[in-house]
Amino acid sequence: MAKILVIDDDVDICLMLCDVVEVIGHQAEYAKTLGKGVDMVLAGEYDVVLLDVNMPDGNGLEALQTIRSVARPPEVIIITGVGDPDSAELAIRNGAWDYIQKPLSSQKIILRLKRVLQYNDSLKSSSARAWAFSRQGIVGDSSKLNTCLDEIATASSSNGNVIILGETGTGKELLARTLHANSRRKEHKFVVVDCASLTETLVKSTLFGHERGAFTGADRSMEGLVKQADGGTLFLDEVGELSLESQKVFLRVLQEHSFRPIGGKSEVESDFRLISATHRDVDKMVCEKQFRQDLFYRLCAITIEVPPLRERPEDIEQLVTYFTNNLCRRYSIPPKEISPDFLEALYGYLWPGNVRELYNVVEAAVSTSNLEQQLCSQHLPTNIRIHAVRSSIKKDNDSGAGSTPDWPAVELPPFKQYRDGIRERAEKQYLGRLMEISRGSIKEACRISRLGRTHLYALLKKYNISKTGWSE
Ligand SMILES: Nc1ncnc2c1ncn2[C@@H]1O[C@H](COP(=O)(O)OP(=O)(O)OP(=O)(O)O)[C@@H](O)[C@H]1O
């Protein structure tokens, strides 16, 4: 099922397009302003965007490039009230798939959508065939994790610096290793720099190494991490923990890809690809001047966000099975079954420590269960069991089991008032557009709208609309 976003300030058009999309079996959402629409595109994954040109907060054509710049860009179909060959050309040049003119008929939209979705499908299957991406032990099949893996796969074919963002324990390092293992650099090293333990006194010697005799006790020369990553990948784990002084050191080596070992006489080169990871909000740190903006820009040519486990509970069962089997093998004990109540309890928990916490919980449960054949909720830590019981009671209460339903106290206007309000807004917008398209010609407006002259004049008067389409 494809996901389609409609961006149009006319709610009726949005609703009509969403209906059409749903009729052909896809999912639709809409935004009434350009700003909201662009935010939705940046935050979500859409296959197609139906984009209106004239929006109250800007011109759709100007947002095209932003929309097409996301990691998995949606195809964009421009919808416009007034056809203009120059804008159409500009739209196509900026990456639009198609350019269609109002009035819109369901048939017109369905035809265009089917064409673009067919094209997307053929693209996906050919790239899937062409690419044998190795998951490197990453378990889970939720759509959120798969999106993230798609981004890793795309990044592994390029050489840009990547930053992986996500809460602690979500698998950032595992994903960085997977990216490296799928890249052209896989025959070379993946070198981890633990930025949290990189003190200012250690930063230079750890990164750049030193020559023999460079300082007291340096009885041998030592290669630094940057040189070790030559040809491979340098992974800056917890990059948000770098002090400002260490950030300065990094910035230089990123700019030059060369450095001087302590006590060295000349610069040494290293061709590494940089991947960094952090659970911190680096954007905010930049605003608060805790992180250098110039360094941040260099780190994040490609940004990949790993979703927390609570947003992909579908992965829990696969992860639990995988961890349990591995642990049983490691402890040389027979494999264990997983009971439904064990899983149920895990689903009720929010996993602040994400996959790492899940692993620890499963490991503890496997030990506690000793030689029992099945993992049950009794083998789980008390805090998780309490959480599960609480959330199941809350669910029962929310679904109103055994009591009369509690209607939420939401204020709704009377039906007629609500309906008439929408109708008036829709009529007013329609007439404004109508007069704009017909360039003030009543004859043309009657032809397009199929309204009689008298009726049209009456409506224009009612909504105070002049023949040029502007409210007087
Ligand atoms: N999808 C997954 N499949 C299998 N194992 C996973 C998955 N995600 C994470 N793990 C495991 O969970 C543990 C934590 O993962 P990792 O260290 O990569 O997380 P992280 O986000 O880098 O954590 P931190 O921010 O604390 O450094 C590791 O043992 C890793 O192998």
From TrEMBL:
The keyword ATP-binding applies. PROSITE patterns: RESPONSE_REGULATORY, SIGMA54_INTERACT_1, SIGMA54_INTERACT_2, SIGMA54_INTERACT_3, SIGMA54_INTERACT_4. It comes from the Bacteria. GO terms for molecular function: ATP binding; DNA binding. Gene3D superfamilies: 1.10.8.60, 3.40.50.2300, Homeodomain-like, P-loop containing nucleotide triphosphate hydrolases. The keyword Phosphoprotein applies. The modification 4-aspartylphosphate is found at D52. InterPro entries: AAA+_ATPase, AAA_lid_NorR, CheY-like_superfamily, Homeodomain-like_sf, P-loop_NTPase, Sig_transdc_resp-reg_receiver, Sigma_54_int, Sigma_54_int_dom_ATP-bd_1. Transmembrane segments: none annotated. Residues 3-117 form the Response regulatory domain. Residues 138-367 form the Sigma-54 factor interaction domain. GO terms for biological process: phosphorelay signal transduction system; regulation of DNA-templated transcription. Pfam families: AAA_lid_14, Response_reg, Sigma54_activat. This is Two-component system, NtrC family, response regulator. It comes from Desulforhopalus singaporensis.
